[in-house]
Design a protein that fits this description.
Blueprint: H1 9-16, E1 39-42, E2 49-51, H2 68-76, H3 86-103, H4 113-124, H5 130-148, E3 151-153, H6 157-164, E4 169-174, H7 179-188, E5 195-202, H8 203-206, H9 213-223, H10 225-229, E6 234-238, H11 241-249, E7 254-258, E8 281-283, H12 286-292
Parallel strand pairs: 1-4, 1-6, 4-5, 6-7, 7-8
Antiparallel strand pairs: 2-3
Helix pairs in contact: 1-5, 2-5, 3-4, 4-5, 6-12
């Protein structure tokens, strides 16, 4: 689906994003010396950005103090009938997409949420052209996410990106949708430029989601041969013991568990795949991360 859009993303982010504070986790920090790495890859939701739902694309009840239908009516002048079970239709299409991709061999499938919404809209509005449905789907997908998942920069995230600038190669490996990099550009401004395009691996672009190691492998390949040969030169920072820490460490990367917010910290204590996995370090804020990389005060 084309990324060219007339949607005023900035207006929606300004209107529906408001300050959030991280909630303490009670997890003790573990601060080793990690100054041998020279590339840093980040998760987004729950790490660089506070996420009220804990992750991207979570279909749940409205949390933004405004119903999704009223947001759509106000912003798009589009009425979604009250008797249309929107969330159920979205879930149905996502599950259908997952089943198809799993049948094709993808272990951890990811959807392109604009395509999901286009199919849902096609069931609701049978008299709208395909081109118009595509335009509506993009804005609806964003508004739906903003109504379900409040986001705000994690304290210190922009500062640590600027500290890393010029010292490390920087990228992202994250479960994401088309609005994720747009949201990051809105929040981080010029600091977003520290990320190398080829080191930003977004799940929706790859049709697969974490914890699939192939996403991390692509980042290593794009870093270059020396990093494939020596993956311990790469540090991955994330808030999920399975999706982030276990997946990255399986390829030999160093790992840092970001335990800065209770809502998004995923320890996965009952998950067999993480029973013998330990992160190289644990930080509760980005000041601690800067210190163990040798760039903090």
């Amino acid at each position: 689906m084309s990324t060219v859009s007339s949607v005023d993303y900035g207006r929606h982010f300004c209107r529906y994003c408001s300050p959030l504070e991280p909630e303490p986790t009670g997890v003790p920090a573990l601060l080793p010396d990690l100054n041998t790495v020279d590339a840093v890859l980040f998760d987004v939701y729950g790490t660089l950005v506070i996420s009220s739902s804990g992750d991207v694309g979570t279909v749940m009840e409205d949390t933004a103090g405004d119903t999704f239908r009223s947001m759509v009516l106000r912003e798009m002048d589009l009425l979604i009938p009250e008797d249309v079970p929107v969330d159920e239709l979205v879930k149905e299409e996502i599950l259908k997409d997952h089943r198809q991709k799993k049948a094709g061999g993808t272990l951890h499938p990811e959807v392109e949420i604009r395509s999901i919404w286009k199919r849902v809209l096609g069931k609701i509005y049978t008299d709208i052209s395909s081109a118009k449905l595509s335009t509506l789907a993009e804005e609806l997908a964003l508004l739906h996410e903003l109504s379900r998942n409040r986001v705000w920069p994690m304290p210190g995230s922009r500062d640590v990106l600027e500290l890393l600038r010029g010292r490390f190669r920087i990228g992202v490996v994250s479960n994401a949708q088309f609005y994720t990099p747009l949201m990051m550009k809105h929040f981080f401004g010029e600091s977003f430029s520290v990320f190398e395009d080829k080191l930003c691996i977004w799940s929706y672009c790859e049709d697969m989601a974490k914890p699939d190691p192939a996403l991390f492998k692509k980042a290593l390949v794009n870093l270059g041969g020396e990093y494939l040969a020596h993956p311990s030169r790469v540090l991955y920072v994330g808030n999920d013991m399975l999706n982030d820490i276990a997946a990255a460490s399986s390829l030999g990367m160093r790992t840092l568990l970001f335990a800065g917010d209770r809502r998004s910290l995923r320890m996965r204590n009952s998950e067999p795949r993480v029973l013998h996995i330990q992160p190289d370090g644990i930080v509760k804020d980005f000041n601690q991360m800067a210190k163990i990389l040798g760039i903090g005060e």
